[in-house]
Design brief:
The complex is a heterodimer. Chain A is α/β, with parallel strands linked by helices. In chain A, 71% of the residues lie in helices and 9% in strands. Chain A is built from 12 helices and 5 strands. In chain B, strands 6-7-8-3-9-10 form a 6-stranded mixed beta sheet, sandwiched between helices. Classes of the chains: A alpha/beta, B alpha/beta. The complex binds adenosine-5'-triphosphate and magnesium ion (MG). Magnesium ion binds next to helix 1 of chain B.
């Protein structure tokens, strides 16, 4: 009962001889071409022993080994005897290596039960929160040290960062805050027109830009732009052992890398926010003029009846806080990055996520706080 | 040379490592490693890839915290991270990392100037002069204002060496100084290491696979092993190569042609 399976070139011809199945391998066995399947070669036969031999095998590679291994495994399972003595020496050596590799490679189980996962995640959260607190603490201590020896502050780096995160961000901040002003005005107009209170559009835009949207929108832009850049730069330095080089000299990384960046953001964020406020109000003014026919002078006068200096302060305080949050998150994530290219990417992403999360929380806390203070 | 910490004992061994164990979260890399390095010695740490040489170095210079054992420099315990004792010790170290680890945002001159600015009261002009001198010493004169990204890997390594020597350290650690360098440069680097030792009496710890360097400049070597997780041989390289009965040691050291190297 011969069972033959043919492909373009590699062939395994099986022939029953008593209890034994004689399998002859011929042709060119190549991993890129198809190879005969053992099941098909075997057909319905139930041999007690399998004898393998190679005849006129023009070329062979791992594909032949895989086939032989399949045969061996089948023999092991069914208890048949697998006779490979007729195969060339080289093939037998490789085959035994494959068998060893197969036995020693115990699959490394990285899966975990639901409870383990939950436990690990909780522990992880605690560890992360602790890392963040420790980092903030380190920064505070470093700041105290720096105030005692201000000449150690790296002004040059700080100015460079200020330019990067401040001046270079002006175009995108302008565009976004102007459009936010426009959008708010359109939305507000729908309601206010119904009650004939068109003029109050000025109050709406003024208050929401100055107290809220200016700082928040700027922070969102800066988190994506600068926070991610901080994390990527510092993460890359870590992968390059540059951070190790600093530490091995005893130069505090916080002083060298973190302060110039945080100070730069702490200074630029309020300035950018004031600028964003102005552009948002301008956007609102444009819509008021175009849609509601309110002259800019009237708009301005109306706005000043409600927006005062305390509102401006609210925005500036928020902006400074957001700046610190973005700077801290970016630097911390960068310092925590894994030492690889993928680690740097993850650090950048997680810097943005952390910053956005924390700044929304901070915003909510401020909302309550300012409400209590009556600002 | 940077002054030693005041508590330093003048004739204590420069480095005393006792029962040091190093581990990463998941795995122990080294167990109970004990050795000493005396003043002015060129001490090599050798061993196959992944046996923990870089790990040992990182634990010695405090970038990683050992899980057991103690390290003393000049008879002074290394101390807790961020302690004043440790900071004082760190200023007497120079470290050359496997990849050079230059600060990419600074030019070569600024790279070398930074430790000087941090730890000395020298004027800017003096600092610049020292930076120029150190760069010239490693054959990088004229590259002062290049950024690390604008020079080759071997040049980065040499610049890293110049930075490691910036504070005229009492102990210098090198992680594979000659990996990735051509034979001539690598030989020059060996000569420079010798010269630094002979001139300043600097103690030098080198991690290396380079047989040529091992046989030409090492005073003493320890060999680490991945399976044993510790030291399997200690002594002068030539004697080890000729006399060791441990096949792992002789195999490593005789991989090069023993008849021509020693
Ligand atoms: N960050 C890490 N986390 C976990 N294990 C690590 C880490 N770094 C190194 N190892 C493990 O520690 C062992 C020793 O690594 P190490 O880098 O010290 O080797 P090495 O002797 O310096 O090798 P090479 O000569 O290739 O540089 C390796 O088996 C490695 O898998
Ligand atoms: Mg290494």
């Amino acid at each position: 009962m011969p069972a033959t399976s043919e492909t373009a070139s590699a062939q395994a011809i099986a022939q029953m001889a008593g209890d034994a199945l004689e399998v002859t391998l011929t042709g060119a066995w190549q991993i890129t071409a198809e190879r005969p399947a053992w099941r098909q070669v075997l057909g319905a036969a139930q041999p007690g022993r399998v004898r393998l031999k190679a005849e006129r095998v023009e070329r062979w590679d791992t594909s032949l080994l895989l086939f032989l291994f399949e045969v061996q495994e089948w023999c092991r399972v069914t208890g048949a005897y697998c006779d490979v003595d007729a195969l060339p020496e080289k093939i037998r050596t490789l085959l035994s290596q494959l068998a060893v590799a197969h036995e020693t490679s115990v699959p490394f189980d990285r899966s975990e039960s639901f409870l383990t996962a939950v436990g690990n995640a909780s522990l992880d959260t605690v560890v992360k929160a602790r890392a963040y607190s420790r980092f903030v603490g380190e920064c505070v201590l470093g700041a105290v040290r720096l105030i005692r020896r201000p000449q150690k502050f790296r002004w040059r780096d700080c100015v460079h960062e200020m330019q990067q995160c401040g001046a270079m961000a002006l175009p995108i901040v302008s565009l976004i805050s102007f459009l936010v002003g426009v959008t708010l005005a359109y939305t507000g107009a729908i309601v206010l027109r119904q009650y004939g209170g068109d003029i109050y559009i000025a109050d709406l835009i003024g208050l929401s830009m100055v107290r809220e949207m200016g700082a928040v929108m700027t922070a969102v832009v800066i988190a994506g732009r600068t926070g991610a850049a901080f994390a990527a730069t510092i993460g890359n330095m870590k992968a390059n052992e540059e951070i190790d080089a600093l530490e091995s000299l005893g130069i505090p990384t916080v002083q060298f890398l973190v302060f110039p960046r945080i100070v730069a953001l702490g200074i630029m964020m309020p300035l950018l926010t004031l600028y964003a406020d102005a552009l948002g109000i301008l956007g609102g003014m444009a819509v008021a003029l175009g849609l509601l026919r309110i002259p800019p002078a009237a708009y301005w006068t109306e706005m000043l009846t409600i927006v005062d200096l305390s509102d401006l302060w609210v925005g500036v305080i928020k902006a400074t806080t957001f700046g610190l949050i973005i700077g801290l998150s970016g630097c911390l994530r960068g310092l925590q990055a894994e030492r690889s290219a993928a680690g740097v990417g993850r650090a950048a992403t997680s810097a943005v996520v952390t910053a956005l999360l924390l700044l929304v929380i901070a915003d909510a806390i401020y909302a309550v706080l300012f409400n209590i203070l009556g600002w | 040379m940077a002054p030693l910490p005041s508590a330093a004992a003048p004739d204590a061994p420069v480095i005393e490592v006792e029962n040091l164990s190093c581990a990463y979260e998941s795995s122990v890399v080294l167990k109970d490693v004990t050795f000493q390095v005396s003043r002015g010695e060129i001490f090599f740490v050798i061993g196959g890839s992944g046996c923990g040489k870089s790990t040992l170095l990182r634990n010695l210079v405090g970038l990683h915290h050992p899980v057991g054992g103690s390290v003393k420099f000049f008879g002074v315990p290394f101390g807790a991270p961020d302690s004043a004792a440790r900071r004082a010790l760190l200023q007497t170290f120079g470290v050359l990392f496997q990849g050079g680890a230059l600060w990419t945002s600074l030019t070569l001159r600024q790279n070398i100037a930074l430790p000087l600015e941090e730890f000395t009261a020298l004027s800017r002009r003096e600092i610049n002069e020292i930076a120029g001198l150190k760069l010239a010493q490693v054959g990088l004169g004229g590259f002062e204002d290049y950024f690390p990204s604008e020079i080759s890997g071997g040049m980065r390594k040499r610049a890293g060496l110049a930075r490691a020597l910036a504070l005229d350290p009492a102990v210098v650690f090198f992680d594979e100084p000659s990996a990735g360098l051509d034979p001539v440069t690598s030989r020059k680097l060996d000569e420079l290491i010798m010269q630094v030792r002979d001139t300043f009496g600097t103690t030098i710890v080198v991690v290396s696979h380079e047989l040529a360097s091992i046989f030409s400049i090492a005073d003493r070597v320890i060999m680490l092993d991945r399976v044993h997780k510790g030291i399997i041989a200690e002594g002068r390289p030539r004697e080890l190569a000729l006399q060791s009965r441990d096949s792992r040691v002789t195999e490593f050291l005789r991989r090069g042609d023993l008849l021509t190297t020693p």
